């Protein structure tokens, strides 16, 4: 019977399989972050890594007075995380005292003098200064070269945090009644991700059920057809037909395709390997001390510039000296085997032999502060999600092509810099629809990096 065509069933299976695989892939792609999302956040409080110039540039409160101005509080937030969060928290004791309500305990002139030079106040015999110094095991607080307005902004931030319930984690806020509520954006993102995961699971289950159902229907149809008496020889031959899988690997065409793919794959890997000589992307050496950026920069939100002090003002980002570690670890985890390694290095007057990870060839000029301070790039732009790394590895390729692509795609930060005014006007007059990028300012010329 010509009307019977069982060969259409495999095609139906294949069509359904391709449909669900394509739909699932497209759905999963929708959950992925957009390209370039890593390290482009400009939120000063995110992950404990903030550009060095943000706090100074933000409007601050008038010296000697606190204010609820959001701009002043934001400036104080950035300054606090850069300078204070290593030893202080608002609602709990860390190395130094909890700061909640500090503006009610001391007047503003006293606080400004204390933050600028606590040692001088202790030496002068100030009663409150001496009391705090003795209460906290005579731990000397560093002096800070901050303006009166910047210190006032920090106190404004502390006052704002004091008003929040203690222990309110990131992503949660307190309502007017003092109740803790989930931040709407975080909740929406979490719910969206969960819904997508559930949808994918349901689709996979439905696909499996459909495939099993179709196989069962096909077998039932075959059994029914085998019992019919009116089938001719051609129909019975088709029902009993078995696919000969040996035809696949015996086929000359298939062998040719497999051989070609194999040769191309070997050739591709060979070329990639040759081009990768001298590149160290993914390099993750074992360090002499098990330092965790995830703990320090992520969970504790210690600003990068606290340890890497030249990151916003030097040609290269320095490796912190042991005395910076001792600012905290003279009081915290002093019995840890890893911390004792720092003690031994100090006692022996020997530097810690850290293994360098990011290393640009001497033939290329690179200035770290030009990218962090002037361009305002986040640490994650080049170093990846550093705040999530237990052991640091080289995230980016750091090749010539990688740098040039960045210079071609990144708009130049010209805001508030009169040096660029005429250049921007000249560029816009000729290329108004094209952004003024680093490349537009000569950032891809050979002599910019090689001279």
Automatic annotation (TrEMBL):
InterPro entries: Cyt_c-like_dom (IPR009056), Cyt_c-like_dom_sf (IPR036909), Cyt_c_III_dom (IPR020942), Multihaem_cyt_sf (IPR036280). CDD domains: Cytochrom_C3. The chain crosses the membrane at residues 198-221, 252-271. The keyword Nucleotide-binding does not apply. GO terms for molecular function: electron transfer activity; heme binding; metal ion binding. Keywords: Electron transport, Heme, Iron, Membrane, Metal-binding, Signal, Transmembrane, Transmembrane helix, Transport. Residues 1-28 form the signal peptide. It comes from the Bacteria. Residues 71-162 form the Cytochrome c domain. The keyword Cell wall biogenesis/degradation does not apply. It holds the Pfam family Cytochrom_C. This is Quinol:cytochrome c oxidoreductase pentaheme cytochrome subunit. It comes from Hymenobacter actinosclerus.
């Amino acid at each position: 019977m010509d009307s019977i065509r069982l060969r259409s069933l495999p095609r139906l299976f294949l069509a359904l399989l391709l449909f669900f695989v394509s739909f699932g892939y497209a759905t999963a792609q929708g959950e992925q972050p957009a390209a370039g999302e890593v390290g482009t956040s400009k939120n000063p409080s995110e992950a404990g890594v903030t550009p060095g110039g943000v706090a100074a540039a933000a409007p601050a409160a008038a010296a000697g007075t606190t204010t609820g101005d959001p701009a002043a509080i934001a400036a104080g937030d950035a300054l606090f995380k850069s300078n204070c969060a290593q030893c202080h928290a608002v609602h709990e004791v860390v190395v130094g005292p909890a700061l909640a309500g500090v503006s009610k305990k001391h007047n503003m002139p006293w606080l400004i003098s204390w933050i600028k030079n606590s040692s001088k106040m202790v030496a002068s015999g100030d009663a409150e200064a001496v009391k705090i110094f003795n209460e906290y095991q005579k731990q000397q607080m560093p002096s800070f070269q901050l303006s009166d307005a910047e210190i006032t902004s920090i106190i404004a931030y502390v006052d704002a945090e004091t008003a929040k319930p203690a222990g309110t984690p990131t992503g949660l806020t307190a309502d007017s009644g003092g109740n803790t509520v989930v931040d709407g954006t975080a909740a929406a993102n979490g719910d969206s991700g969960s819904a997508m995961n559930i949808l994918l699971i349901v689709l996979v289950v439905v696909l499996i059920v459909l495939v099993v159902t179709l196989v069962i229907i096909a077998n039932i149809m075959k059994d029914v057809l085998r019992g019919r008496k009116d089938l001719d020889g051609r129909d019975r031959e088709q029902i009993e037909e078995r696919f000969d899988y040996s035809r696949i690997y015996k086929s000359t065409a298939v062998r040719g395709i497999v051989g070609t793919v194999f040769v191309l794959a070997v050739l591709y890997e060979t070329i990639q390997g040759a081009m990768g000589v001298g590149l160290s992307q993914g390099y993750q050496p074992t360090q002499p001390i098990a330092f965790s950026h995830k703990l320090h920069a992520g969970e504790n939100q210690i600003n990068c510039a606290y340890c890497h002090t030249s990151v916003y003002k030097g040609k290269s980002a320095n490796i912190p000296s042991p005395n910076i570690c001792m600012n905290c670890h003279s009081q915290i985890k002093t019995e840890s085997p890893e911390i004792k390694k720092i003690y031994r290095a100090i006692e022996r007057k020997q530097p810690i032999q850290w293994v360098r990870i990011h290393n640009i060839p001497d033939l290329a000029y690179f200035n770290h502060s030009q990218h962090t301070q002037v361009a305002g790039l986040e640490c994650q732009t080049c170093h990846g999600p550093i705040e999530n790394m237990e052991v640091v590895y080289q995230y980016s390729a750091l090749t010539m092509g990688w740098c040039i692509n960045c210079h071609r795609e990144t708009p130049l930060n010209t805001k508030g810099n009169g040096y660029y005014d005429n250049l921007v006007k000249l560029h816009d007059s000729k290329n108004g629809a094209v952004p003024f990028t680093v490349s537009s300012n000569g950032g891809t010329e050979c002599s910019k990096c090689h001279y």
